[in-house]
Design a protein that fits this description.
By secondary structure, the chain is an alpha/beta fold. The chain has one domain (3-203): Vaccinia Virus protein VP39 (Rossmann fold), CATH 3.40.50. Helices cover 27% and strands 27% of the residues. The termini are far apart.
């Protein structure tokens, strides 16, 4: 398929999946109109790139459905000047959207092969405000903290303490929290060192795995 062949499904995604379901942040909608989601999936799955479901990207990981990505980005309410920590680079799609919405993005991916692939795509698309790091996402990136916003694309049983510690005062984190059968997407704001939590949506994400739980991929 040529890039232009995706204009119709992309527009349908924006109107039927996002606007019709309550996504109102025009910056988020504009970013999702610009970023070519099909570039972040395998050739044989590109026809599904803008459909309303997750897409496998290998290594047991998935690219979240567009609506969930939009809900997470809208909750962060990015204005354009922020430093953002992105946990779970995966395909790099959400990372690219963050780069459209914030000043600087640091993205951590546990699986080296996914980190390399995402980095290649992001470089090819011309993004220059992204740093991709291979590492344990549950530990964040302390050397680059504090962050104005943190977004987590894997589920933890509770708010990861290391990530909350790297959030600046007044900053926001969006993360799926809970066991596989009862996850909730939460927006966590740091106020006076405490977490103010708002539940957003029921969701289903792959688990956030630490280096202790799984050997790092070479």
């Amino acid at each position: 398929m040529r890039v232009n062949d995706f204009s119709a499904p992309r527009e349908h995604m924006l109107s039927a999946q996002l606007r019709a379901r309550g996504i109102r942040d025009e910056r988020v909608l504009a970013a999702m109109a610009r970023v070519p989601r099909h570039e972040f999936v395998a050739e044989e799955l590109r026809s599904q790139a803008y459909e309303d479901h997750p897409i496998p990207i290998g290594k047991g990981q998935t690219l979240s459905q567009p609506y969930i990505v939009a809900v997470m980005l809208q909750a962060l309410a990015l204005g354009g000047s922020e430093r953002v920590l992105d946990i779970g680079t995966g395909s790099g799609y959400q990372t690219a959207l963050l780069a459209e919405l914030a000043a600087e993005v640091f993205s951590v991916e546990r699986l080296a092969s996914l980190a390399r692939s995402a980095q290649e795509i992001l470089h090819r698309l011309g993004y220059q405000n992204i740093t991709v790091v291979t590492g344990d996402g549950s530990q964040g990136l302390a050397e680059r903290a504090p962050f104005d916003a943190i977004i987590v694309a894997a589920a933890a049983p509770r708010v990861p303490p290391a990530l909350f510690a790297q959030l600046r005062e007044g900053g926001r984190m969006v993360a799926p929290i809970g066991p596989a059968y009862a996850q909730k997407l939460q927006m966590i704001q740091k106020q006076n060192g405490h977490a103010l939590v708002k539940n957003l949506e029921k969701c289903r994400f792959v688990p956030l795995i630490t280096d202790e739980e799984s050997p790092k991929e070479k």
